[in-house]
Write a structure and sequence with these properties.
The chain is of the alpha/beta class and about 280 residues long. It is built from 7 helices and 7 strands. The longest helix has 29 residues.
Length: about 280
Amino acid sequence: MSDRLQQRVIVTGGAKGLGRGIALDFAEIGASVVIADVDTDAGERCVREIADLGGKGLFVHTDVSSKDDVERLFEQAHNFQGGIDVLVNNAGIAHGPHSERHFLETDPDMWDNLMNVNLRGLYLCSQLAAKAMVRQGDGGSIINMSSGGATRAHRNRVAYDATKGAIEAATRAMALDLAPRQIRVNAVMPGVFLVENRTAVGGESSPADLIPLGRLGIPEDVAHATRFLASPEASYITGHVLVVDGGITAQLRPPSLDADVALPINQIEKKIGNHA
């Protein structure tokens, strides 16, 4: 991957968690980064972190479901960095009372809130980014944030999973529409990550209960995948969903339920050695 990427980047939901990791990772390799978020304190703190890295960053308070906010975001981003090469649609409601509720108790306001933030926000930001990239005439990259809920199901998160399935469908359709303009559209599908306010998945007592690689993901794992999709090395990749989950979606059952996993790896290696 290129050591330095002189790109102009917007990261929505970039103040904390995975978004912050993505913003800092781009800044470390020379990109200018505009952070859009509703958390002003965290957003300004992230910009200071970018400055500490010797990078160039700007925070714009943005509710991505608001057309006026998104238009102001792109206007300020243009004034700050002169254009846009990469949009990372990371903003979304992922946990807590806004997304976790049994289907029988899901009310229209909750449903609309998820759709507005997770889907309307992606649409508003992507369309303005794509129009700017078309005007610039040299292509660009849009990267959406999916979830395992796009292809598998969570209990008590019907609205959330519906938005993520729609995001993957939109990624493919946008990729086709924008390909003639050399604008690539891909998605990253994170697994279980060590971020602020993470809640345990089901009855997990340790990452090894759920994740084949035996650890939680860290923001850098998603950041590096995102940066790859935005880089020249991914210039022939569009309409793709890159899974970054330590093997969760590859498995039929979690490690804790598979009998073979109970045999310690050192015993397996010893048996292999005895028959080599």
